[in-house]
């Protein structure tokens, strides 16, 4: 193991695995280690025994009424994939889609006045949705048509405004949209966690609305897709990509020491008495407690249910509910993701609802009450509170590139933005999300091979 | 596709210790060649080949380990949903046979319930240095309901036969993977992935 690597990656969470894969495909020599004996770190999906042990320790076994442990693949960090979003672009860029199977999420809901409604996102839906009051229908329809037609580089579609300057708040006012409508546009379509976007230029929000609409248009039921067997498949798939392009994988590797050799400009990493060197380290925040800072807490509550949730369409085997902050007098949104055996994450008949939110009070679980009220009887509950951690420095000075922990958003856009930003800091170049030339080369070779055989 | 053959596609994974000849077996089967010094698996770890039976065509989507077996870091995703597995050992190495048995147990515990497992004692061309007796492996395979063959990727002995036996044993039912309603993730802009349908002639 006495070797030099371009990059050593520590931790096999999703972000680390995507970066490891991208760097290996680029031809970098990568060593990827994890102190745990399994892939995924915080982004792993657990079976019931693992989940139970995490909350209750080893002594007590999970009750048999929960069903077979191995039928469970429970995400610790619940998120859905926007089907036209950045993660899909990264999956295509690397051809990692071939290792995974996805299904569409059945429904997307937003909470309003104590009940949940399907999210209207097109001009026609705006007219029929019960969420939209009679007086709001016409202005909303006009606004949706404006957004649909908006093209960044075509001023004729900008309604005479400079939307890189005009705030979203001003744009909403121009269209005469009232608070309830603004609330669902900002939080259920543009997917903002809080209201700070209102004072930002309108362009970004419009692009996020278009992303939602594009994603919805792909598979029509909802804008989200989700992999069979849980999100824990994603880091494993990117790790496989990295391995295929020469990355070396080692699990169960505790890191004992990391020394910076200023003179030779290398970093020495020691694990189990063996030392390897590298130019750069990429890792999750847990590997450098002295180089990161806490920025708030996130609560995630995993609820096992014995049937579909009573507040939504009973036929739906998977869905998302967004609870906008103002609806429940909070400063940030709350999310509920519901999954079932349709995505191979639990036994038949069971449903998993995961509620997540940024912690705002000293009694975080009480904050989740409005979400719990939507779920019906809960058979078993696993509640976790975790810190949101960010690196203090950007890594360019010490060559240690640390990812941010996974935030409370319901999708992977911020996750991928962090990955793209890290990639740029690590390599000095932008990540271009078209299919990678090295992947194309391999695809072509495989194609030629098939033709020869014919 | 001018015959009326039904085509069934299956995911097949290779398992076994490093350097027992997993990649060589696949390359012999898919490309019909053998390299004395096959490099550790890099780059192409996803191959396809078809086997024609009487009235059906079986297309194998073959997953190689990408070297992740070296430090025992193969991810569960690798054999997830696999309908067939070839567990390979080197007939000159008892350790590799022990490791193969561990893989069989892992597949029985974590793999798909109806997975077809084949045990392959590879490097039959080097039988002079044999350490694992045919009868011993045969008996283990029978007791555990595995297909069993000794193979040589170098001489091609029993390689096609092994895949044909697996193809015969696989259930030919329309939905072979869990979770109906899966969606294809295709590029958003100019959707040309260059995937071609093919069948044997």
TrEMBL record, chain A:
Reading the lineage from the top rank, the first entry is Eukaryota
Q: Which GO biological-process labels does this protein carry?
A: protein transport; small GTPase-mediated signal transduction; vesicle-mediated transport
Quote one Gene Ontology molecular function term. Answer: Rab GDP-dissociation inhibitor activity
Q: Which GO terms describe its cellular component?
A: cytosol; pathogen-containing vacuole
InterPro entries, alphabetized: FAD/NAD-bd_sf, GDP_dissociation_inhibitor, RabGDI
Family listed: Belongs to the Rab GDI family.
Q: What PANTHER family does the annotation carry?
A: RAB GDP DISSOCIATION INHIBITOR, RAB GDP-DISSOCIATION INHIBITOR
What is the protein named? Rab GDP dissociation inhibitor
Q: What is the lineage of its organism?
A: Eukaryota, Amoebozoa, Evosea, Eumycetozoa, Dictyostelia
